[in-house]
Amino acid sequence: MASEYMSMDNLRFLMYEVFETPELANHPFYAEYNKDTIDMMLDTAKQLSDNMLFPFFEEADRYGTEYRDGTIQIHPSTNKFIKAAGEGGWIGAAAPAKLGGMQMPSTLLNAVHFIMGAANNSAMGYIGLTGGAARLIYSFGTKEQQEKYIPKMFAGDWQGTMALTEPQAGSSLSDLVTSATPAGDGSYRIKGQKIFISSGDYSGVENVVHLMLARIDGAPKGSKGISLFIVPKHRINEDGSFTSNDVTTAGAFHKMGQSGYATSHLIMGEKDDCHGHLVGEEGRGLHHMFQMMNAARISVGVTGAAIASAAYYASLQYANERPQGRRITNRDINLPQSLIIEHADVRRMLMLQKTIVEGSLGLLMECTKLHDLMEIEEDEEKKKNYDMLLELLTPVAKTYPSEAGIVSVSNGLQIFGGYGFCKDFPLEQLYRDIRICPLYEGTTGIQSMDLLGRKVTMGNGKALMLLAGEVQKAVQEAMNYDDLKPYAKELMRQGQLLQETTQYLIGIAMTGDKEGFLADANFYMELFSINIIAWQWLKQANVAKRALLTENPQGDRLQFLESKIHALKFYFKYEVPKTAGFITILKDTEQLTVAREKELIC
Ligand SMILES: Cc1cc2nc3c(=O)[nH]c(=O)nc-3n(C[C@H](O)[C@H](O)[C@H](O)COP(=O)(O)OP(=O)(O)OC[C@H]3O[C@@H](n4cnc5c(N)ncnc54)[C@H](O)[C@@H]3O)c2cc1C
What is the pTM of this model? Predict the structure, then answer.
């Protein structure tokens, strides 16, 4: 088993030096989060992950989740961790202090989730969902709902879920049919079924609070008819005792990865006795749920980056220990074998992993910082700009760490040779685990159409302009350093190509060919993502360069900073040129994938 799964040095470099998170403490809302507090929180999260999470990562996968006695049996260490996370304040960390939270900046909370997710991604999922579901209640729920549910959820006693998906409504949520009939006492009788509900039910949990989308009788079809409800597994009586709420767990999904994470099939109202309570406004359910979905998209990105990080450090360790063959420069059979880290092809795979993991983490922190700034900004115009930029980057922050994360873990597995395919090493599990990331929380296809079809045109192109302004800042700084200048120029050139390609595609949309416009949106996502990650690498290299020039660094710090510049070079040599292929595809007018009357896929 590998001994390390993430780098605290890298996390601190990003938080303190690139994104300057402690500056948030200048605002009264985040006043407690100075560097000392952040350091302490990160160290505590790492200790918890080392001692509680990492040790049962593999065991929980082998144990799996089994449907038995009407619930889903999970590894008991998961329950212990959830309880410990509740006691440590991690579940409600982001909530305002007046609601029992710690008012923790999203940047810090996601950094904590990154540490925990790298140690044990399945276990981390449970607490992330409860935190998100509770946030929906405190953002849109009544005072009574807040008092009834939030303390138990924050304590880790009650699980929270997001219950959206139905058999006929996965990507297309506007087709959901779960019904809500006014019961006459202020509650609604809920009837329907939900599938694939993460943490939907499991052994040892007291109660499960489903944040569920349903349609009130007579509501219009489509998304405008969707409302949000709290549907608990057990109704809570005046004296705190429970009455079953007619939510049946019909089964567990047996998945290729995240096998320790319970995924349930729920049936509501078989006995006509399932009661739900409206949260927020009738007909605004999808709008309210978007708060949780947007945060969950960032969380999926964090999970992808975290799993890829665990894979990177496992393969780095292996490459430093495994002797095989000899370097091409010295084939003398009498000499001992070289370590595989000396072979160029293995080094290429390691560098690819590093650039994906650390580039993804940069993008994710860019997003969480925007979220934190939005939270405290008083100037409406600036707040709107942060929001717009965050909206533009969110589909990329969900998709790049997920898709490139798979490539990254696959390369890590390759470094293990045949052992990578075996259960003796963690790579096969990490490879299975990360495969879910491009699927849930909006598939890559859906995220790509969102990016091209909605986000890049937001505010008549204002979102793209704001992004260009941010990229320009990194370019300008890099132009001061001779060795970074070529990369700054290349990033500018890439930005122009992206702009031209975007205009070209919008031209297709303007002809009315909406389907042709979006047919290759996934390639647009790849093109866009490479630009974004290249920008992140330039930002990181700028900071490293500044430190190299001003600090006279030695030892590990020198190696760390130089490796950042090296990674920038690698990303621009090996990944950035791929954009040319994507642009060629996107500008090719021949339509081979749009459905026609004559079916040619057979
Ligand atoms: C392990 C796991 C955990 C999950 N957890 C939750 C949860 O906690 N809560 C919850 O509500 N849901 C959850 N989900 C559901 C998940 O969000 C859906 O599986 C996902 O949104 C895709 O829906 P679907 O499976 O019905 O696929 P479909 O929507 O049927 O999609 C199938 C394929 O068609 C493509 N496609 C669909 N529509 C279009 C379109 N209009 N244009 C182009 N391509 C399209 C998709 O991209 C995909 O490739 C989970 C799923 C899994 C597997």
Answer: 0.98
Give the max Cα distance, the chain.
Answer: 87
* pLDDT of amino acid 596: 87
- Euclidean distance between CA atoms 166 and 172, whole angstroms: 10
Q: How many alpha carbons fall within 13 Å on the CB side of residue 198?
A: 22
3-state secondary structure 474-495: HHHHHCCCCCCHHHHHHHHHHH
As a whole number of angstroms, the distance between CA 501 and CA 521 comes to 12
What distance in Å separates the CA atoms of residue 549 and residue 541, rounded to the nearest whole number?
A: 12
Residue 261, SS3 per DSSP = coil
Nearest to 569 by CA among 449, 466, 488, 463: 488
User: Percentage helix, strand, coil, to 5, in the chain?
Assistant: 60, 10, 25
278-283 mean pLDDT: 98
**Any residues with CB less than 8 A from the CB of 256 and at least 6 apart, and which?**
432, 435
Q: Are strands 207-216 and 179-182 parallel, antiparallel or unpaired?
A: parallel
pLDDT at 119: 98
In the reported structure, the alpha carbon of residue 156 is separated from the centroid of ligand 1 by a whole-number distance in angstroms of 28
Active site residue 403: no
Domain boundaries, given as residue ranges, for the chain: 445-591
Higher-pLDDT residue of 600 and 365 is 365
Tokens of 583: 């642009």
Q: In the structure, what pLDDT confidence band is assigned to residue 330 with cuts at 50, 70 and 90?
A: confident
- For the stretch 50-64, pLDDT in tens is 999 999 999 999 999
Selecting among 391, 441, 477, 526, the annotated active-site residue is 441
Chain centroid to Cα 184, Å, comes to 40
**Residue 167 CA to ligand 1 centre (angstroms):** 10
- Report which residue type is found at 440: Y
Which residue in 435, 391, 398, 442 sits closest to 165, CA to CA? 442
What spacing in Å lies between the alpha carbon of 173 and ligand 1's midpoint? 10
Q: Quick one: tokens of 492? A: 């500018």
How do beta strands 158-163 and 207-216 pair? parallel
